[in-house]
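Researcher: I'd like a structural prediction for the single chain below. Treat it as a standalone chain; there are no partners to consider.
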Amino acid sequence: MFLGQFRHNLDDKGRLTVPARYREDLLSDGAYVMLGLDHNLLLLTSPQFAQVSQRLNSMNLADPNARAIRRLIFSTAEQVELDKAGRILISNNLRNLASIDTEAVMVGTGNSIEIWSPGLWDAQMKLLEDAEANATRFAALDLSSS
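Model: Treating it as a single chain, here is the predicted structure.
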């Protein structure tokens, strides 16, 4: 499970260091990075990406929304591998799409990792710190003990 948040600099080739606690899952299965849904990037293990691909490939091609989501995901997805130093290469295209320059924030979201530009992540954190909104979010989660 991917938990926590980590800030790392990218080197001049666009390589981003993956936190040590994330590496084992990514090393064993490989990974894919693609455009996320919130002006960020999404990093999935190979099995997770295979599940997403299977669902996308089973969608009705006559549906314009299905075609759009297939284009969005498949046209931005790239297979990544960890190098010996525990880094992944993020292409210029993906860095530009997510406004990532010299620094990125890797955020564990359970079964996936989001990669954010620091400014956009800080703005996201402001939204996540809204106590009233969080009360509504947690109510929907239903954390009752029974």
